[in-house]
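User: I'm putting together a small comparison set for a docking exercise, and I want a reference complex before I start. The sequence is below, and the ligand is zinc ion. Could you produce the 3D structure with the ligand included, as structure tokens?
Assistant: Of course. I'll restate your input first, then give the structure tokens for the complex.
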Amino acid sequence: MIPVFDGHNDALLRLSMAKDDPVALFRDGGPGHVDLPKARAGGMVGGFFALFSPTPNQPLDFTVFDAPPYDIPVPDPLPKHAAAVPVARQVDIATALEAAGLIRLVLTREDLTPDPEGPLTVVLHLEGAECIDADLQGLDKLYDAGLRSLGPVWSRPNVFAHGVPFRTGSDGDTGPGLTDAGRALVREAHARGMVVDCSHITMQGFWDIAEEGLPLVATHSNACAISLTARNLTDAQLKAVGETGGMVGLNFGTMFLRPDGKRAPEGGIGFAVRHLAHMVEMAGEDHVGLGSDFDGAPMPEGLGSAAALQALVEAMREAGFGETLIRGICQDNWMGFLRRRLPAEDAPATTQEGRP
Ligand code: ZN
């Protein structure tokens, strides 16, 4: 079995909304895409686990994805207090999963030792920074709780940046990028050796982050060349990911995989491999990984949960990908990137050298 370290999932959000005990659900398995039994069955050794605040009363209506073209307006901004409550709950769940020996939070690069039989190796990620103030109050507390990755914005505007709408027939050039507060957040995250994620930010925001000198990372986005949708990346963006020593993680969400932008599950694995081949061609073979969006998006046929990850490995083999490339995409590229990026155990977080 090829080990998989995944760039993005929403398991903590799903567990936070479940009625049953989240630790038991994760340990014993349940209806979602990611839990310990499914991870073991599919060779998943860890990944980025997102903290996310849904917009109350404005749930994403997935039936819209059945009938492209679509252009779903971004939801209203979310006030800090409304964002902080679900994030705190999800941090508590991550802490409880760690206390139960089911996951281990990565705090430094020395913690990057994924073990197929041990606890899952988890990088805690914040998807949309609404729970942090414009003056960055709240970042310290999250960092101390183990946060090592953040996307300034989700597909919903905030004080830091503008996010892309779910829109077909368009790349991510949908509006302005980082605000001054967003630039300050990105610089501070960079100084701490955190990952800054460009998935969901506009194209302008992507280039603003490049201007700040960060490695460009899109944890769960695909190629506009195959599926032209605002959540995916153009060839110029994919090349910049490679040139800056960054990473792009393949999103399995059907509407980001399929050329027609539909959420229909048919043909998904084939499209996934086409995206991977294109992303490797543009970004380079050391800069492409997986970013499933498990528990956050509709999954393709044959890749319905973490338990099915080896089906994607098989599809890569059938498409002629070599074993080194497959291992790189599945785990080694994320590991290499994180070992360069995260703080070292013996280095104070604020003196991390700048990286390309
Ligand atoms: Zn997302």
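Residues 351-356 have pLDDT under 50 and may be disordered. The CA atoms of residues 17 and 156 lie 21 Å apart.
User: Thanks, that's exactly what I needed.
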